[in-house]
Design brief:
The complex is a heterodimer of chains A (331) and B (503). Chain A has helices at residues 25-30, 56-60, 71-84, 86-100, 109-129, 134-156, 161-164, 166-169, 177-204, 216-240, 244-258, 269-277, 280-292, 299-323, and strands spanning 5-7, 19-21, 31-39, 45-52, 63-65. Chain A has 331 residues and is mainly alpha-helical. Chain A has 2 domains: 5-58, no CATH class; 66-330, no CATH class. In chain A, a hairpin with a 5-residue loop joins strand 3 (31-39) and strand 4. Chain B is of the alpha/beta class and 503 residues long. Helices cover 54% and strands 13% of the residues of chain B. Classes of the chains: A mainly alpha (331), B alpha/beta (503).
Chain lengths: 331, 503
């Protein structure tokens, strides 16, 4: 395949000129640039530098559509393609945050400000209604809402990710998983903005969660992993059935009140407590929120979230593998 | 080593239809299969493209061109069959991948470039080149949402071609830009083609396809109906258009017009059958245009084809309405009507009969001066014109013009030049001599006209005042207004003006 020949004088060319011969255009595509430097100290000698195109190896591999093999092959192919496209979705998720808030003064902090107002109102009113210690309740509600916001955004904002990617998905072969990656990354960026609020609450109420706070990191990673399948599934469902978007939005609103975010789970009492125990969102919130508050979460929650991840990934990727090649037709 | 291989590829789009839908084929679009709930947008497509191939896609709207491009781009996985691609692909369809209206041109170059497979370093290296090529100036740092369609095309084209893809797919990409940019774009495309990549171009412009492509595929209802050299396929396409236009397909008629005028603009003679269809379309826009009607009739004659009587009548009727004196056209129409070929084609037969009846009446009416006088006195403009023409004729022969005819002819002349004082005076005198009631409007115009020349004629001023006191009824509002204007413009020192305005 190495068909590149460097000639000192091409046929028909003037003597003293350098020429490159290519056996095929694939060889030509290997070269992304050519540098010829004239070395004055050595008289008429030239240094020839070829820049080899790093992507060309990948391009030569044939891409077959529909992807041969079963659902597993489809998923493997698309996930690896999406991982290869990491620069694309990392950039897309980041610039999306910038673009979305471009014409505002506070930018993404508008979100943060909204949540702050919510937390203050809830903190004052509900700590009175529920007869809770204000400082402790502020921390509880504040952290809870920030964490809930991240988890809920996977689903509620995930509804539109594939629909919004229409111009991309209909003009090139693009792995839809990458839309989910971009979305999770974007949610994480917004979460980062909201995290400022958490720090403010902790400082304001003069409370240190201690080293337990580090447990929040594996919790967050698990929640993010869950976010991938949650946003992908919600995006796929809403692409197929457009009615689901509003339905999911209201469903998640109800979910916010059902899940112990505004109130401690103990208040449900022994009879209803099981409702929270069976709620995967509760466990997902818990493994991030509790360490942030300095509490070690019940290991049961970890298992719950791990279980949700496995089941969710299986269901989502299985249906992704089945329908991936139909999705472009759903636009 | 770029390659694109399609093996028996189908594209079937899912649809939800009401149960009553019958399915089948319409003139545009693919086949609708109700039982399976799909539209077959592309049916059993197989071909292979290799280095240096420049493929043109043609076909009417909905024939499957855009679907084909999406299939080739890998966006639509074939529902049956398969497609194998080797080489990097770049596409320019109606939207550039990853483009966002909120971002500036510069930011979108980065996003789109990443989507198209460039690395950040490559994008940074090419940024200036892309911006230069797009010629967007300071707009490059403004949000894309304020761009015009042409600016979007410039940006999109500059990005997708900067990728230096091995396979480039374009959808009418050059149509939106202005002439200057289109020229630059085609130069850039030639460069890309020269670097031995594959090009697929979907377009309605056969000129563009014939100039750019080495091979053309013509699609209809999602099938390849012609495949071959650009010129041959263009020819086939032209034949298909002519055929469809001959069957009165509105879109095909317009397309035929475009094709014919395209060729004419390039200085080529469109083939007669194409020109006929183009003329038919043009005559729908400008019914009755004499030159086009005659050209069409002579082309039809040269082709040895006879027009259907109905079509011919539909050509003749508007033409005669525009030029009522064309005896040849009238004779032809009479022949058609007399042959009975128009029986049963109601509006056309009635119109033709009405035109011919009027013709007969006119011939009878205006044969004698008495008929002309009678017609003109009843207010018939044609009659007045005849009277005018007759008095001119008599005067030119040095014969005396009967006062009656001269007066009627003057009515016509005054319609054309209502303020001619000489004619007004003559008409006024003639009416007095004939014992006709004076036309107050004409008199007012006569007086105002004369006063403009001789402002001192107090007798005329008195008469004008007198007419104005007669009340509104006999005077045209405009005439009245002009009379009042003349009176108020008179010199104020004249004490007679106080008669009308005692205050």
């Amino acid at each position: 395949m190495a068909g590149i020949v460097v000639r000192a004088a091409p046929p028909g060319g003037e003597p003293g000129h350098l020429g490159l011969d290519f056996a095929s255009s694939a060889d030509r595509s290997l070269i992304s640039g050519l540098q010829i430097t004239h070395d004055f100290s050595c008289g008429a000698s030239y240094k020839l530098g070829l820049m080899i195109n790093p992507r060309s190896k990948v391009d030569v591999r044939p891409s077959i559509s529909p992807i041969p093999g079963g659902p597993l092959a489809v998923v493997t192919e698309d996930v690896s393609e999406a991982l290869r496209l990491a620069p694309v979705w990392l950039h897309a998720g980041w610039i999306d945050v910038i673009w979305r808030f471009r014409r505002t003064r506070l930018g993404p902090f508008w979100h943060t400000l909204g949540i702050a107002a919510f937390i203050i109102t809830m903190g004052v009113i509900w700590s009175t209604i529920l007869h809770q210690d204000p400082g402790q309740y502020f921390r509880f509600v504040g952290t809870g809402i920030i964490v809930w916001g991240l988890i809920a955004s996977f689903i509620t904002d995930g509804t539109s990710i594939i629909i919004a990617g229409q111009s991309t998905a209909l003009s090139m072969r693009f792995p839809y998983v990458a839309f989910a990656f971009a979305h999770v990354w974007k949610s994480l960026l917004l979460f980062g903005h909201h995290f400022v609020l958490y720090i403010l609450i902790m400082v304001g109420t003069l409370h240190s969660p201690g080293w337990t706070v580090l447990l929040a990191i594996p919790g967050l990673i698990l929640a993010i992993a869950n976010g991938v399948w949650m946003s992908l599934l919600s995006g796929m469902l809403c692409l197929r059935r457009r009615d689901l978007g509003p339905a999911i939005a209201s469903g998640m609103q109800i979910m916010m009140f059902v899940t112990p975010v505004f109130w401690p789970k103990d208040m449900l009492g022994p009879n209803l407590g099981i409702a929270a125990d069976l709620n995967p969102f509760y466990h997902m919130v818990r493994i991030v929120r509790d360490p942030l508050l300095g509490i070690v979460p019940d290991p049961v929650s970890w298992f719950w979230v791990l279980g949700t991840l496995v089941v969710g990934l299986l269901v989502t990727f299985w249906s992704y593998g089945l329908y991936r090649d139909r999705m472009a037709y759903w636009y | 080593m770029a390659r694109l291989t399609l093996e028996n590829a189908w594209v079937e789009l899912p649809i939800s239809l009401s149960r009553s839908h019958k399915g089948g084929v319409s003139r545009t679009g693919g086949e609708i299969d109700v039982s399976r709930g799909v539209v077959t947008a592309l049916r059993d497509i197989s071909f292979e493209l290799r280095d240096g191939d420049r493929l043109g896609l043609m076909g009417h709207n909905g024939a499957g061109k855009t679907t084909m491009l999406r299939l080739l781009a890998g966006a639509y996985p074939p529902t049956r069959g398969r497609i194998t691609t080797i080489g990097s692909i770049s596409t320019l369809f109606n939207a550039t991948p990853g483009i966002n209206a909120e971002g500036t041109g510069r930011e979108n170059i980065i996003t789109c470039g990443l989507h198209l497979g460039l690395s950040r370093r490559q994008i940074a290296a090419k940024m200036d080149e892309i911006i230069d090529f797009a010629e967007l100036g300071d707009f490059i740092d403004l949000p894309v949402r304020i761009y015009s369609a042409g600016m979007m095309t410039r940006l999109g084209f500059s990005i997708v071609t900067a990728v230096e893809p091995e396979i480039l797919l374009l959808d009418e990409g050059l149509a939106t830009g202005d002439a200057h940019f289109a020229r630059k774009a085609s130069e850039k495309m030639n460069q890309l083609i020269a670097s031995s990549s594959i090009l697929v171009l979907a377009s309605h412009s056969e000129t563009l396809l014939a100039d750019t492509c080495t091979r053309c595929i013509m699609l209809e209802h999602g099938r390849i109906i012609a495949d071959g050299g650009a010129k041959d396929t263009v020819e086939t396409y032209r034949r298909a258009v002519v055929e469809a236009a001959d069957a009165d397909d509105a879109q095909a008629l317009e397309r035929a017009y475009d094709l014919a005028s395209d060729m004419a603009r390039r200085g080529e003679h469109p083939p007669a059958d194409l020109e006929i269809q183009g003329l038919r379309y043009a005559l729908r826009l400008v019914p009755g245009d004499q030159a086009m009607t005659m050209r069409l009739l002579s082309l039809m004659h040269a082709q040895g084809r006879s027009l259907r009587p109905l079509d011919e009548a539909e050509l003749l009727i508007p033409a005669i309405r525009k030029n009522p004196d064309r005896e040849d056209l009238l004779d032809r129409l009479k022949g058609l009507l007399d042959s009975g070929a128009l029986e049963g084609h109601e509006p056309a037969r009635r119109d033709a009969a009405a035109i011919l009846n009027r013709r007969v009446q006119q011939v009878e009416t205006y044969a004698e001066p008495a008929g002309i006088v009678a017609a003109a006195q009843s207010g018939d403009v044609e009659g007045m014109y005849r009277a005018f023409a007759l008095s001119q004729e008599l005067a030119s022969k040095g014969e005396a013009v009967p006062a009656e005819i001269e007066e009627l002819g003057l009515r016509y002349a005054l319609m054309i030049d209502p303020t001619n004082v000489g004619m007004l005076q003559r008409s006024f005198d003639l009416r007095a001599a004939l014992g006709l009631e004076a036309d107050l409007n004409a008199e007012v115009r006569l007086i105002t006209g004369t006063l403009a020349l001789h402002p001192g004629r107090t007798d005329l001023i008195d008469r004008l005042r007198q007419i104005l006191t007669l009340g509104d009824a006999p005077l045209h509002p405009e005439t009245r207004a002009s009379a009042v204007a003349v009176l108020t413009a008179l010199p104020q020192h004249d004490d007679r003006t106080k008669v009308l305005s005692p205050a």
